[in-house]
Design brief:
The chain is about 25% helix and about 25% strand. The chain is of the alpha/beta class. The longest helix is centred in the last third of the chain and has 16 residues. The protein binds adenosine-5'-triphosphate (ATP). GO terms for molecular function: ATP binding; ATP hydrolysis activity; transmembrane transporter activity.
């Protein structure tokens, strides 16, 4: 579903990771690990096509990925239902009920996103992935603001997605309880300092 070969990536013109190769098949989850600043977000942005690699290749089909970055990507004045409707329609779909149920949003459907708590808003942001219909979900620190019960909801949604033939890539510092996930420690791929490429700083707030 997704593979990278001998990938090198830079942020702000500075190489951060190099020599990365991995493949992700249907039903698999990959957890990206590494200390702050090592390049997890940069790797996800590169996989999502928001910035080009310095070297190497990303192989992924069209309309395969859905990316949830640091921002929740919700429209503050729209309700929970309206936000999910909006995202479903962006991806040419209409079904939102399973996402509402999976992220325990039933009691909040008519509330404006701006009036949700931080954790509720994060649950809505994560629920967006379910309405995309895309097979590969990518998350950057998905559990920020989530309590233990909500982390479990998230892990369960990912597990169901994997069981249905989907795949997931996640940058996270916490243990999600997804024992089936492979862990990719980015430490050994830290780039030697060098002359980098130009900066491509796309706006990731949208996703
Ligand atoms: N816009 C930018 N311009 C220059 N350098 C940047 C920019 N954004 C990030 N960096 C640097 O690129 C490196 C990789 O950052 P990145 O956000 O990918 O790391 P990360 O592993 O996701 O970190 P964290 O765990 O803190 O989220 C860091 O050293 C960071 O300071």
């Amino acid at each position: 579903m997704l593979s990278v070969s001998n990938l090198a990536i830079a942020r702000g013109g500075v190489p951060v990771l190099e020599g990365l190769s991995f493949a992700l098949n249907a039903g698999e989850a990959l957890v990206l690990r590494g200390p702050n600043g090592i390049g997890k977000t940069t790797l996800l942005r590169t996989l999502a096509g928001l910035q080009p690699p310095l070297a190497g290749e990303v192989h992924v089909g069209e309309d395969v990925l859905a990316y949830a970055g640091h921002a929740d990507g919700v429209k503050p004045t729209l309700s929970v239902t309206e936000n999910l409707d909006f995202w479903a329609r962006i991806f040419g779909r209409s079904e939102i009920a399973p996402a509402i149920a999976a992220f325990d949003l039933e009691g909040l459907t008519s509330r404006a996103a701006q009036n949700l708590s931080a954790g509720q808003k994060r649950r809505l942001g994560l629920a967006r992935m379910m309405v995309t219909g895309r097979p590969v979900w990518m998350f950057d620190e998905p559990t920020v603001s989530l309590d233990a019960a909500s982390v479990a909801l998230f892990a369960s949604a990912v597990r169901t997605h994997l069981a249905g033939g989907g795949a997931a890539v996640m940058a996270t510092h916490i243990d999600l309880g997804l024992t089936e996930a492979r862990v990719l420690d980015l430490g050994p791929y830290r780039a030697a300092a060098g002359v980098g490429a130009a900066e491509f700083d796309s706006d990731e707030a949208f996703l």
